[in-house]
């Protein structure tokens, strides 16, 4: 390492996202006199605001990007260093930043987040979405687009396909149904009609959408066309610095180059075989280009179902890769199969005095049967908070147990303008065939799915304003034997909240 240590801090946290900032807050609250440094590559930090504990495990909050001075004012012992960590030397307890400075630490927490797992690297026509800059790039490119292809079937794809207006969207999913990361086929079937209807507008009358739903073509496609004359009012341009997260798409205008129309074509059970520019396509064997001719689009994407589509650009909504590489060289970090830094039940990595939290890490402690890791704000916040507690406890020689928030997986979000609550093993994760499902569905209103194993509720998917989340959370946590209730459990005429209160 080139230079000598500029300063040694008692604690250094790397990463100004939700996990890192929450870790700093917790650590500085536990040990106000401690010398803490936050080193972050981004010009702003992400802070939790309007935090609301909805129930024992469900929480809601807003995420705001703020100048780091906000945090320094709150914690006088904090130093925020705006630079990226270039290398980490765990043996000498030091790290080097890209602007050539070297800092020492007694304890370190890596909260470097993740980055989009792109279909192909360095392809100007393939966009990933991660932070504010990438969301703004999407908005800019979309404003001139007539057709885009969205690949992926998780959180970003679900939100993007629903939000984009004025541009044809070809949505390629490798599954039989939409939203496989969160939903089963039943829930997907409940949500699909929302692609045909107009989005509820903010206090502006919107015309009844004229739509046609063509029968799925034999090749397993579904096309929805909604004639959209109503335009969303009040949708401002990108709020400078607005953080991505539960409402990332509200802060930007996802408007294509055409007025009104929105057309979503679903291509099921297919993946990307190849992405061509029009020049490359000219020199390749004849493809099924449908009615287009080569050259009418800047990029072409061939799917494994044999179809090739021309488009303006491709959105790779295909998951997250933990941001570990700046920290690995020369160190002995144990990595999980998904590439994350392995952490134990005290958020400690395999390197002494080095912790990790958020998207960059993989929880490798023995999980509660009702909890699984998903790279979400909520878990990034919980992990950051808990890592801060663990770091302080170690220094203060206090005992600490795995926090209750890792007892039950819970997630509140919104898809297709429905409230969505996911609890426990919401898709029967890891249960094999040893479970049964109870489902209650009212078209356009609610979809309730309960996962039962051994007569006990172990998971639930709640779509719509069901108000069942607290009751079901208690039933799962209390491990109550529900066998006697059978299908009555979801009888809409029984007020289940009172019944089990
Ligand atoms: C488009 C989009 C929408 C999402 N919507 C939701 C949602 O609705 N609900 C939900 O629960 N989750 C959502 N997520 C997931 C959520 O954003 C992440 O799980 C969460 O932000 C992870 O927080 P983090 O602090 O671990 O990482 P990040 O928020 O990515 O923060 C990482 C920080 O580390 C910094 N950094 C990285 N490398 C270095 C380095 N070498 N040196 C210094 N600093 C570095 C970065 O600049 C950044 O400040 C969404 C994600 C995306 C991409
Ligand atoms: N409302 C929410 O809760 C929300 C919204 C957006 C994003 N997020 C989170 O942000 C992160 C990023 O979102 P995301 O949508 O990129 O990830 P994701 O994990 O939600 O979805 C990735 C999807 O891409 C698919 N996929 C992966 N590789 C593929 C390939 N080669 N070809 C085709 N499909 C492929 C996966 O099967 C999955 O359906 C995730 O952790 C997600 O949970 C959450």
Automatic annotation (TrEMBL):
Keyword Cell wall biogenesis/degradation found: no
Start and end residues of each stretch annotated as Disordered: 196-247
Keywords assigned by UniProt, alphabetized: FAD, Flavoprotein, Oxidoreductase
Gene3D superfamilies (UniProt xref): 3.30.390.30, FAD/NAD(P)-binding domain (3.50.50.60)
All copies of domain FAD/NAD(P)-binding, residue ranges: 10-165, 301-384
Residue ranges occupied by any NADH-rubredoxin oxidoreductase C-terminal domain in the UniProt entry: 413-479
Keyword Oxidoreductase applies: yes
One example GO MF annotation: oxidoreductase activity
Polar residues compositional bias, start-end: 222-240
Named cofactor requirement(s): FAD
Coiled-coil intervals: none
Function: Probable FAD-dependent oxidoreductase; involved in the cellular oxidative stress response. Required for normal sarcomere structure and muscle fiber integrity.
UniProt similarity note: Belongs to the class-I pyridine nucleotide-disulfide oxidoreductase family. PYROXD1 subfamily.
Protein name from the UniProt record: Pyridine nucleotide-disulfide oxidoreductase domain-containing protein 1
Lineage of the species this protein comes from: Eukaryota, Metazoa, Chordata, Craniata, Vertebrata
């Amino acid at each position: 390492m080139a230079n000598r240590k500029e300063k040694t801090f008692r604690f250094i946290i790397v990463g100004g996202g939700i996990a890192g900032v929450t870790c700093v807050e917790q650590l500085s609250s536990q040990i106000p006199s401690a010398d803490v440094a936050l080193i972050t590559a981004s010009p702003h930090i992400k802070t939790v605001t309007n935090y609301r504990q909805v129930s024992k495990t469900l929480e809601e909050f807003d995420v705001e990007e703020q100048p780091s001075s906000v945090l320094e004012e709150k914690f006088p012992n904090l130093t925020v260093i705006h630079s990226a960590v270039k290398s980490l030397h765990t043996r000498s307890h030091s790290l080097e930043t890209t602007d050539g400075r070297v800092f020492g630490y007694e304890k370190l927490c890596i909260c470097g987040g993740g980055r989009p797992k792109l279909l192909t690297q360095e392809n100007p026509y393939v966009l990933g979405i991660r932070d504010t800059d990438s969301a703004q790039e999407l908005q800019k490119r979309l404003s001139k687009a007539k057709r885009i292809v969205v690949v992926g079937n998780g959180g970003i794809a679900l939100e993007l396909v629903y939000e984009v207006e004025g541009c044809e969207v070809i949505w390629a999913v490798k599954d039989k149904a939409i939203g496989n990361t969160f939903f089963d086929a039943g829930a997907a079937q409940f949500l699909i009609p929302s692609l045909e209807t107009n989005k509820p507008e903010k206090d502006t009358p919107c015309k009844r959408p004229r739509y046609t739903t063509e029968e799925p073509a034999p090749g397993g496609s579904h096309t929805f066309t909604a004639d959209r004359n109503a335009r969303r009012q009040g949708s401002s341009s990108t709020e400078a610095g607005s953080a991505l997260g539960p409402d990332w798409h509200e802060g930007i205008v996802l408007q294509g180059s055409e007025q009104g129309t929105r057309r979503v074509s679903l291509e099921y059970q297919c993946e990307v075989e190849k992405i061509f520019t029009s020049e490359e396509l000219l020199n390749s064997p004849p493809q099924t280009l449908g009615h287009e001719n080569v050259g009418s689009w800047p990029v072409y994407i061939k799917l494994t179902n044999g179809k090739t589509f021309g488009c303006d650009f491709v959105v790779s909504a295909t998951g997250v890769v933990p941001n570990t590489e700046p920290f690995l060289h020369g160190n002995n970090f144990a990595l999980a199969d998904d590439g994350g830094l392995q952490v134990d039940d005290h958020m400690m990595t395999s390197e002494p005095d080095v912790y990790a939290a958020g998207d960059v890490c993989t929880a490798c402690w023995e999980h509660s049967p009702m909890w699984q890791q998903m790279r979400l704000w909520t878990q990034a916040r919980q992990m950051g908070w808990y890592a801060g507690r663990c770091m302080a406890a170690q220094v203060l020689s206090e005992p600490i147990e795995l926090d209750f928030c890792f007892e039950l997986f819970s997630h509140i979000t919104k898809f297709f303008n429905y409230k969505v609550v996911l609890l426990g093993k919401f898709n029967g994760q890891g249960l094999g065939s040893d479970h049964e499902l109870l489902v209650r569905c009212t078209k356009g209103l609610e979809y309730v799915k309960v996962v039962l194993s051994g007569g006990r509720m172990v998971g639930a998917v709640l779509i719509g304003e069901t108000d069942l989340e607290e009751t079901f959370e208690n039933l799962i946590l209390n491990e109550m034997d529900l066998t006697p209730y059978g299908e009555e459990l979801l009888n809409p005429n029984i007020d289940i909240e009172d019944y089990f209160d």
